Amino acid sequence: MPISSELTEELNILSRYNIASAQEGIKVHHTAAPELVAAVKRLYSKGIVTQEDGGYLTDLGIETAEHIQKVVSILK
Q1: CB-hemisphere CA count at 13 Å for 64?
Q2: Full-model pTM
Q3: What is the pLDDT of residues 28-53, one digit of tens each?
Q4: Who contacts 21 (Cβ-Cβ below 8 Å, separation ≥6)?
Q5: Distance (Å, rounded) from C-alpha 62 to C-alpha 32?
Q6: What are the CA-CA distances from residue 63 to residues 30, 35, 42, 58 (Å)?
Q7: Domain boundaries, the chain
Q8: Nearest to residue 68, comparing CAs of 23, 20, 14, 8?
Q9: Could you give the strand order of the β-sheet that contains 26-27, starting from the edge strand earlier in sequence?
Q10: Backbone φ/ψ region at 2: left (φ over 0), alpha (ψ -120 to 50), beta
Q11: I want to staple 36 with a disulfide (CB 3.0 to 4.6 A). Which of 14, 32, 53, 63 is the partner?
């Protein structure tokens, strides 16, 4: 199964979250690259982040980010 560029953008965003602290979020400004803005909106629509521009991870988002970050760690 090939990884689309859209999925890659979502993975990149989720890998930036600090999963050690639920108090830290991410804000993607409207002036950011259009693909990043679109990726965050997709994550929001999937219930992974709390805001259309990022915000905090939901419970599902925390679990997802943990898995992604483990995969990245293994592959490095």
Answers
A1: 20
A2: 0.90
A3: 998 999 999 999 999 999 999 999 99
A4: none
A5: 23
A6: 26, 23, 17, 9
A7: 5-75
A8: 14
A9: 26-27, 54-57, 49-51
A10: beta
A11: 32
